[in-house]
Amino acid sequence: MTAALTAGALTGTLLLTGCGGPASASGDDSSASGAKADLSVSSAYMPQPVSDTMAAGFLTIVNDGGADDELTSVTSDAAGSVTMHRTVGGAMREADRLTVPAHGRLVFRSGGDHLMFDGMKRKPVEGQSVDVELHFARSGELKVEMPVKPATYNPATGH
Ligand code: CU
Questions:
Q1: Which of 3, 24, 67, 96 is 20 to 30 A removed from 34 (C-alpha atoms)?
Q2: Residue 24 lies in a domain
Q3: Measured between alpha carbons, how far is 47 from 67 in angstroms, rounded to an integer?
Q4: 88 CA to middle of ligand 1, Å?
Q5: Ligand 1 center to residue 25 CA distance, Å?
């Protein structure tokens, strides 16, 4: 009984140390200069477009690292150009670069920020996928396969 309690107390201490360590070390010079972005992509999809030449794309870029990064451009062999659009007060505005904050995420979602594909070489159809390359200021390139979903697809409901 006593031994079990001690082990529990020790585990608690270790967990606290593990959590507090990185945060308290963040002001340290060597740690700050070693911090970098750690990016991954999830929830990528393209609603099957109505238009023959234009399409929208959505995805979430997660940064598990301790430094910000910036999405500087997006390219795709399937399109003449891909631009990043912000939706501000109901109006779309093209963005040059978008920040992926440290320990944060950059979310492109229906009704919000989105990728705009122009000059599609062929009309994407549900079940296909579109290859996209994301270019970052620090992390280089990330390739994403964007599955084409039904035009009315909403990831929140799964339909
Ligand atoms: Cu747009």
A1: 96
A2: no
A3: 32
A4: 11
A5: 41
